[in-house]
Amino acid sequence: MSLFAPPLNRLIEALRLLPGVGPKSAQRMAFHLLEKDRQGALVLAGALRDALEILHHCQDCRMYCEGDRCPICRSSHRDEGLLCVVETPADVVAIENAGFYRGKYFVLMGHLSPLDGVGPEELGLDRFSERLRRGVREVILATNPTVEGEATAHYLAAQAAQIGVHASRIAHGVPMGGELTYVDSGTLSHAFSGRHRVAQTDPGSHPADESF
Amino acid sequence: MSLFAPPLNRLIEALRLLPGVGPKSAQRMAFHLLEKDRQGALVLAGALRDALEILHHCQDCRMYCEGDRCPICRSSHRDEGLLCVVETPADVVAIENAGFYRGKYFVLMGHLSPLDGVGPEELGLDRFSERLRRGVREVILATNPTVEGEATAHYLAAQAAQIGVHASRIAHGVPMGGELTYVDSGTLSHAFSGRHRVAQTDPGSHPADESF
């Protein structure tokens, strides 16, 4: 790699800091920017500095925002009593894009992972319990169905129970449009253990209200 | 996407300017930099600006370098009479890493592609013919074996012939360690048409010197 001039080597090394970018991709990116998109390189450099300077965590939900609080937390049209806990800002986007949820969020920016040094403090859980005390009826635990996500959900449920807030976990099972043949055994086992009785006679009862 | 604060949106859009980075990867990169590697983001921003400011094309070979001429062109230990033409700086690195070539280079920074507006001027071919006139014995055309690379090689060979410089094309065939079963038909056809007579008796003759 010493064939390249030092600034080029430094650029390639810096691009490798991006997740999922190996040495060949970094080289390709560097040459692309230098040769075909010099304006883009300037835009990227500016966007990086701006983002670092301007963006802060929302005081309420820890989402990235420009001021003290993010637009969702500032909104008076959303249910203050419902709090959905997710791992990343991208999860908020996924849920918002689905368009059914009208409550507020709390973004952990990760999950509990003691081996990586991520404990309750790193996830801002002091702010989470403070948030729960401000009139939250139900906390919906929407962390990922991974080992760490489940552990985090358990920890948060215990915290909510201490404060006396009802905690629920989103359902895990066969995805809509999915075929049983291609679903993994863990998901199938979750789908069976989380099965609901099908309402047969009373049109007033909601099938999801009763579980075996 | 309007859920994110504008500086975050701008960063995600800027990261999408990198080749091979789609919306999801760009989001992941942005969150990674903001959450886990803020120092890395600063390093990347600085490296981008430095590279744009400091790097220039080498006057002789068009490789990226800091001064007027790159270390390979400045070197007096390399054969001035051999000129290898490649499409990208990464090709120079590949050939240098192989370690057998002791001549000089000319980097096209692309290939002829009239539809994309890349003609002889964009590839610096005026500088190429000027370079050929400075005591080059043989020009080795090492452009990629693609339609554009072949067309570029033909064009360069004609240019070299005009100046009276011998031009050669690197061999194309079955790669070393490759298996015939898995080689595509175009490569196989090249390997057959470019076959060489095997020297049988005279130990002095090199098999590659004789072709059918």
Describe this structure in words.
The structure is a homodimer of 212-residue chains. By secondary structure, chain A is of the alpha/beta class. Chain A has three domains: 6-53, Helicase, Ruva Protein, domain 3, CATH 1.10.8; 79-169, Dna Topoisomerase Vi A Subunit, Chain: A, domain 2; 180-209, no CATH class. Chain A contains eight helices and six strands. Chain A has helices at residues 6-15, 23-36, 38-54, 71-74, 89-98, 125-132, 147-163, 185-193; strands spanning 56-57, 64-65, 79-86, 103-107, 138-141, 166-169. Chain A has a four-stranded parallel beta sheet. In chain A, helix 1 (6-15) packs across helix 2 (23-36). The longest helix of chain A has 17 residues, at 38-54. The mean pLDDT of chain A is 88. Chains A and B meet through helix 1, helix 2, helix 3, strand 2 and helix 5 of A and helix 1, helix 2, helix 3, strand 2 and helix 5 of B. Chains A, B: One of its GO terms (molecular function) is zinc ion binding. Chains A, B: It comes from Candidatus Macondimonas diazotrophica.
